[in-house]
Write a structure and sequence with these properties.
Length: 205
């Protein structure tokens, strides 16, 4: 009689044990799959871009080709530390000819797109005995051809379509953000009734 009563209990216990083992097996399989699917940690390499013979350099933009732009401070081309625009490409840094001359001028390469077009700021009017005067200018430089053009404003960013985010000085002394493109100049207007200067432009302009 005792054996008859215990037989259903033994079957239920065996079934419960099998279910637990099956669940543990599924959990272990899921953990193995997750471990295999986990991405490996990213590895980075630090590259010292160097200087133009001075004390410092500052990078402001990089494109998908690893070309970097910014400004270098000090050195033979910048003895008074005003800052000179540079391009770093092919493992070497070089100044941008046309906006790095003059001990008392300032230039800064602000951004570069994936076609190697660089925009920045050139200020020839810093104080000094060689002061040539003139307003701050936007420069557009092409790495592949070496061509350089100057226009009123200040180059802040450029997208792959060639649209340039800039700002222009207002008669009141403030600045207004504008977009320069093949179709002309688009004034971005005011924010809360006040003019502003933009910082970045995306692929859609």
């Amino acid at each position: 009689m005792f054996a008859f009563q215990c037989q259903p209990f033994a079957k239920s216990l065996a079934r419960a044990v099998m279910l637990v083992l099956a669940a543990l097996g599924c959990l272990a399989s899921a953990q193995d799959v997750a471990a295999q699917a986990a991405p490996s940690p990213r590895r980075y390499r630090i590259i010292d871009l160097g200087t133009l013979g001075g004390t410092d350099s500052r990078a402001y933009g990089v494109n998908n080709k690893g070309q970097v732009v910014g400004e270098a401070i000090g050195g033979p081309a910048d003895p008074f530390g005003y800052g000179k625009a540079f391009v770093w490409t092919g493992g070497a840094m070089r100044g941008i000819a046309g906006v790095t001359g003059g001990s008392f001028t300032f230039s800064q390469a602000s951004a570069i797109n994936n076609h190697g077009k660089v925009v920045g700021i050139f200020d020839p009017s810093d104080e000094g005995p060689n002061n040539t005067g003139g307003p701050v200018q936007l420069f557009l430089y092409d790495i592949s051809t070496g061509s350089l053009s100057l226009s009123p404003g200040a180059g802040v960013d450029i997208n792959d379509a060639g649209q340039i985010l800039s700002f222009q000085q207002l008669p009141t002394g403030g600045t207004s953000a504008v977009i320069l493109s093949g179709s002309g100049v688009t004034d971005l207007g005011a924010l809360f009734g006040e003019p502003f200067a933009g910082r970045q432009i995306n692929a859609s302009g």
